Amino acid sequence: MHHVIDSTNAYLIRSLRENKNLINGHTVVAECQTDGRGRRGRAWVSPFGSHIYMSRYYQTSLGLSEASGLSLAIGIAVANSINRFVGNKAQLKWPNDVLVDNKKIAGVLIEAEGQSDGMCHLIIGIGINIQMPKDSSLKIDQPWTDINSNVDKPMDRNLFLTYLLAEIDVIMSTFRETRLDALYDTWNKMNAYKDKGVKVISGRNVREGTCLGIDSTGALLVNDNLTNTVFKAIGGEVSLRAANQ
């Protein structure tokens, strides 16, 4: 456990580049991040002693292609952990967010280094809101919630982390064997935007349609409003919003 760190993901990346021996499942947890990061380089608000900030390391010989869809799989693990305490309220927003009552409660950031078809290092970063301080909430520019707003008594972060790590182990075992083949139906059942109007944004390009879910590769399937045809959105710089946002 680190009291203060720039970023748990950055710490593991530095460890790799400094040739430190990391074993599968090596986990870094911090009380505070001074430079917490989310997807597309966005800041992740990380006040001291309030939430869960963690990163976990895995090595694979299947290449960078194994990282495809991993954030979706880990999202299931995070949602399952949250639902253990808040009931079946946690839902998934493609590609890496977890929502409760349409408000963001957690996020996943996967970073990978290595060869496209050889040895590869995967770093799984997870941030989960447990108890958001009022002054920190003012820094967030989107609807949010936390665990303690959805439970009867304050959450023990160590207890939550124990369940989360166990869920990650289960999901990683399945993902290594089947990739998303055995998981995408589960993800679709937890899809926050299932059959709802969405905007798919890529740079200045915006397409609107109805969210259908994901396929076995992790691509988002959307029925285009204008053409009534299904198109696929694939990670990278693509983002998803509700149609009314």
UniProtKB/TrEMBL annotation:
Enzyme class: ligase
Keywords: Ligase
Domain of life: Bacteria
Gene3D superfamilies found in the cross-reference section: 2.30.30.100, Bira Bifunctional Protein, Domain 2
Annotated ranges, domain BPL/LPL catalytic: 1-176
SUPFAM superfamilies in the cross-refs: C-terminal domain of transcriptional repressors, Class II aaRS and biotin synthetases
Gene Ontology terms, MF aspect: biotin--[biotin carboxyl-carrier protein] ligase activity
Cellular-component GO terms for this entry: cytoplasm
EC number in record: 6.3.4.15
Record-linked PANTHER family: BIOTIN PROTEIN LIGASE (PTHR12835), BIOTIN--PROTEIN LIGASE (PTHR12835:SF5)
Protein name, entry field: Biotin--[acetyl-CoA-carboxylase] ligase
Organism: Psychrosphaera haliotis
